[in-house]
Structure formats: C-alpha cells, structure tokens
C-alpha cells in the first residue's frame, strides 16, 4: 500500500479511538474473521462470485493487517521479503516449478 492509504487507515482508527481495542489477539481474530468472509464469496462456486463483494472483504483483511503491523511495529516490506527468502529456499524453481507439492515432498 502507498503511504497515503496507510495514513488514511491510521487516521480512521485514531479518529474513532479504536486503537484501545486493537490488541494483537483481537486483530488476529479480526483478520481471520474477515478472511472467512472472503472465503464465503467462493462458498458455492469457484468461478461464479461477486467481484465487488470480494474486493470489500479483501480490503477488510488488508486494513486489519495494516493495523496489526502498526500495533506490533512491523514493516510489511521487511516481513514479506524475509518470508519470501524462506519460501525461495524451501521451494527452489528447479524442483517446485509446476508442482503443488509441499516443500518436504519435492
């Protein structure tokens, strides 16, 4: 997300004094709840879904993720790149390309 969007999320939370409710546990619960609502968009069909509803639920997940990053003092780029480093080691291209197998089954 760009900084303007991040600032808008922060201002929304600050203006409503909601940070007091944003413990890491509450935010993790909220992320899971919103991710479940996103999954619900595909409950009865993998192909027939409402893209507007998908966008809304995905946005909710991202907002709560940004709130959790803020609460824990984490940087999205840093943690994503660290995880990608791990993934690249676990799933080398020459073994993983075109395969859905788990890393320990490659």
Name the CATH homologous superfamily of the largest domain: MazG-like
Based on CA inertia axes, which overall geometry fits? globular
Please name the CATH architecture of the largest domain: Orthogonal Bundle
Give the strand tally: 0
Main β-sheet description: none
CATH topology of the largest domain: Helix Hairpins
Text of the CATH class of the largest domain:
Mainly Alpha
C-alpha end-to-end distance:
34 Å
Protein structure class:
mainly alpha
Task: Extract low-pLDDT stretches.
Answer: none
The whole-number mean of residue pLDDT values reads: 97
How do the SSEs run, as a string of H and E? HHHHH
Helix residue percentage: 55-70%
Number of folding domains?
A: 2
Tally of individual helices: 5
Cα gyration radius (Å): 17 Å
Q: How much of the residues is beta strand, in percent?
A: under 5%
Summarize the structure.
The protein is built from 5 helices and no strands. The chain is mostly helical and 106 residues long.
Descriptive overview:
With 106 residues, the chain is mainly α. The protein folds into 2 domains: 1-74, Orthogonal Bundle (Helix Hairpins); 75-106, no CATH class. The chain contains 5 helices and no strands. It has helices at residues 3-15, 24-40, 51-72, 76-90, 93-96. Helix 2 packs antiparallel against helix 3. The chain starts with a helix and ends in a 10-residue tail after the last helix. 4% of the residues are buried. The mean pLDDT is 97.
């Amino acid at each position: 997300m760009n900084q303007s969007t991040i600032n808008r999320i922060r201002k929304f939370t600050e203006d409503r004094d909601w940070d007091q409710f944003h413990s890491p546990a509450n935010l993790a619960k909220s992320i899971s709840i919103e991710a479940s609502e996103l999954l619900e968009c595909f409950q009865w069909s993998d192909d027939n879904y409402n893209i507007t509803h998908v966008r809304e639920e995905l946005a909710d997940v991202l907002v709560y993720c940004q709130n959790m990053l803020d609460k824990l003092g984490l940087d999205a780029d840093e943690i994503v790149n660290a995880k990608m480093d791990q993934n690249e080691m676990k799933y080398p291209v020459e073994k993983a390309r075109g395969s859905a197998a788990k890393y320990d089954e490659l």
